[in-house]
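anyone seen this seq b4? input:
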Amino acid sequence: MRNIFFLLGCLVLLCPAAKAQFNEKPVINLENEDEPRLNWGYFLGFNQYDFKFDYKDDIGGDILVNKTTGFNVGLIGEMRINEFLDLRFEPGLLYTQRDLGFPGFDNEQDAIREVRSTYINFPLLLKVSTRRLGNWKPFIIGGAYASMNLGSNEDSLDDNSSGTFRMKKSVYGYELGFGIDFYLEYFKFTPSIRGVFAISDELVADDDPNSPWTGNIEALRTRGIFVNFTFE
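predicted toks r here
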């Protein structure tokens, strides 16, 4: 997470186009950019997903999660409510991988489970902005999302006894974040950071209720952080 904040900070501080937006008397770009009722764009970015585990009891060790960096890509539809509020729909494709390490096993084949997830994400978000300050405008954003996990294996007849870690296909949760709109000469560029929090349990338990992999898991929920770069 610290690396993500560092990279975003470097982008904002070192990009010459971004520096120019903070001049005391900048040349105003795209003066009417926010006036249309509807705006469109797209985003690119990267993510780092984690899991939050709720355990049935404290017996045994915690499951370890090795996080990797994935990517995001999607479209943006924005409806202007007023000068400070916008309603946004941001359907996107998100890819990530998490490696789970289960305690109590002597061999790596049983102890490690590779969980690859490809989410089709459908968030509905409210963007709350400040008044435009020259060529930049900070904002906070948040809302609910529904996702479909194409790599869930929910309907698989195999479980962890056969090497398959199963997750539910449908995921529900919420996003919270902040960012800055930069009004450049030809388009609006927006870096933002989002926290993603699933509220639905994603675990499909093994058939054996005493499974050494899932028997002690009460619930499993996704946690993650996004860094998105938007072009409108």
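Strands lie at 38-55, 64-67, 69-80, 85-89, 92-101, 112-129, 136-149, 170-183, 188-198, 217-231. The CA atoms of residues 46 and 203 lie 24 Å apart. kinda curious what u guys think
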